[in-house]
Design brief:
Elements: H1 9-16, E1 21-25, H2 32-46, E2 54-63, H3 66-80, E3 94-101, E4 107-116, H4 124-127, E5 133-137, H5 144-153, E6 170-175, H6 183-190, E7 196-200, E8 205-207, H7 210-214, E9 222-224, H8 238-245, H9 249-256, E10 266-268, H10 275-278, E11 292-297, E12 304-311, E13 314-322, H11 328-343, E14 349-353, H12 367-373, E15 378-380, H13 386-398, E16 403-405, H14 410-419, E17 421-424, E18 435-439, H15 445-459, H16 468-471
Length: 484
């Protein structure tokens, strides 16, 4: 049986590397999985034969789940190594030995074990295994503990007691480029082990105004990259379709542009947010004689605020302010008052605050009182329960032209796109990954909380805590119609 394999230029460089550990990143469809498979095959073919003229080699293939192993990894292997070479059982763990004779008369016994290991809770599966090579397919799915355990378990087959050695042990990894907060960034860029070679394929797409697009100053302009790899094996328009269906700038940046981005590991709260649909293509400006609403998250030392107007039925986010390790009185003086004076001095303005509204331990003032003393009319939102806050924002996001965010509101855009997430729980379940019921608190969550209080007031302005002294000027006059 003859098999014809022609590696792409980057994968050829990976094959020619003499380092024991190899990692390759590239766009989806770049041929990484096939390249990693053939790296394992080549090592098996170079393994010295034993006394029986057999080249024994054992590869453990790791992914987070068995369905992924079965539906994608196994399928790729079967496309290249047909059933005539040996069978693979589909029970867990899936395993089998593929055998073929080489031109020199020796036989290769290519043993494959498919193992689902997502995190340290499942690492015990690896502790007693003796392996030649570990191939971590889609390495972004697993934790660093899995990678570190893999380093300890390779090179143990064939065993020295049997009069043989593993000539080329190592860990092989393939993946789409993750974010800079992923452990793979540390291993492949910041603190690269001496045993590891890292290879990156060319981008599938080029952004001709990347710096300005990444800063949020201009909408991105894309062209297809003629030097992208494996194009001959992809359907026509493959990357154009991926680009058209991608709503997240960071995913485009990492997966298609091959640039390290920043991701949180979790479930995005507002998954209907789209930079294309909800970020204004030009700078927004306040309309004269139109009230300005300010949503404010007043809790702790990380206050955040967003300024907005209702313009032609759309909620237009005009500005944001965020204070890192900032007391609320300082936030008012150094954050809110300057931007109000600069942009909104001639407007009616109402601030809607976190209803927790705790008193300052030193001044005895609540945030609403502090705002009122600074000349800013303020009330509290009627609730800080997460579900109605989320629904209030989602109502604007899900309407056609329901929300337009000024592209200078970088923190809010990043939060809605990637950073405002439900934290993934360390719970194993047959129903899949489990997540916390409320979003993770981080440097991005405060401006989103501020947006939620603002939207909550606009959706349900007659909340029970709205008081007469601050709300009368707005009742029945500038309040929008109900949108739910």
């Amino acid at each position: 049986m003859e098999l014809s394999y022609k590696p792409t230029p980057t994968i050829l460089k990976m094959h020619n590397s003499t380092k024991p550990d190899k990692a390759i990143a590239g766009p989806p469809g770049g041929g990484k999985t096939v390249g990693a498979l053939w790296e394992c095959i080549f090592r098996a073919m170079r393994q010295p034969p034993d006394a029986n003229n057999r080249r024994k080699f054992r590869v453990v293939i790791i992914r987070a789940t068995y369905p992924n192993l079965k539906l994608t990894t196994l399928k790729t292997i079967r496309d290249w190594l047909p059933r005539e070479l040996g069978d693979i059982t589909l029970t867990q763990p899936m395993e089998g030995t593929l055998t073929w004779q080489q031109a020199d008369g020796t036989w290769v016994d290519f043993e494959l074990i498919f193992l689902a290991v997502e995190d340290e809770a499942e690492i015990d599966k690896m502790r007693s295994m003796e392996m030649s090579v570990i191939w971590i397919n889609e390495a972004t799915e697993v934790t660093r503990d899995v990678y570190e355990m893999a380093q300890q378990r390779v090179g143990r087959y064939p065993a020295a007691k049997d009069g043989a050695i593993c000539a080329e042990p190592g860990v092989i990894m393939d993946f789409n480029l993750p974010g800079v907060d992923h452990w793979l960034y540390d291993v492949t860029v910041r603190n690269v082990p001496a045993t590891l070679d890292f290879f990156m394929q060319p981008p599938a797409v080029i952004c001709t105004n990347f710096e300005k697009a990444d800063a949020g100053e201009e909408p991105p302009q894309f062209v297809m990259n003629d030097e992208a790899e494996n194009l001959d094996n992809l359907p026509a328009g493959y990357y154009e379709k991926q680009l058209a269906n991608a709503s997240s700038w960071n995913r485009i940046k990492s997966f298609l542009l091959m640039k390290w981005a920043s991701f949180n590991i979790g479930k995005i709260v507002f998954d209907t947010f789209s930079r294309t649909l909800h970020v204004a293509s030009v700078y927004t400006e306040p309309l004269p004689f139109t009230p300005v609403y300010v949503g404010i998250d007043t809790s702790g030392l990380h206050p955040g605020a967003v300024f907005a107007q209702l313009q032609m039925g759309s909620l237009v986010i005009l500005a944001e302010v965020y204070g890192e390790d900032t007391a609320f009185l300082e936030f008012i003086d150094k954050g809110l008052k300057p931007i109000i004076a600069e942009k909104f001095g001639q407007h009616q303005l109402l601030a809607i605050c976190d209803p927790a509204n705790p008193r300052d331990a030193f001044t005895g003032q609540t945030p609403v009182q502090a705002l009122q003393r600074a000349g800013i009319k303020a009330i509290t939102a009627y609730t800080n329960k997460f579900k109605p806050r989320r629904e209030a924002v989602a109502a604007f996001l899900n309407r056609r032209a329901g929300m337009a965010i000024d592209r200078r509101c970088v923190t809010l855009i990043q939060a809605l796109e990637e950073k405002y997430v439900f934290r993934k729980l360390r719970i194993a379940s047959t129903s899949g990954a489990q997540y916390a019921n409320e979003p993770e608190k981080n440097a991005w969550s405060h401006v989103v909380d501020a947006l939620q209080y603002l939207c909550l007031y606009l959706q349900m302005p007659n909340g029970p805590v709205e008081n007469q002294t601050t709300g009368d000027n707005y009742k029945g006059r500038v309040r929008p119609r109900r949108l739910l």
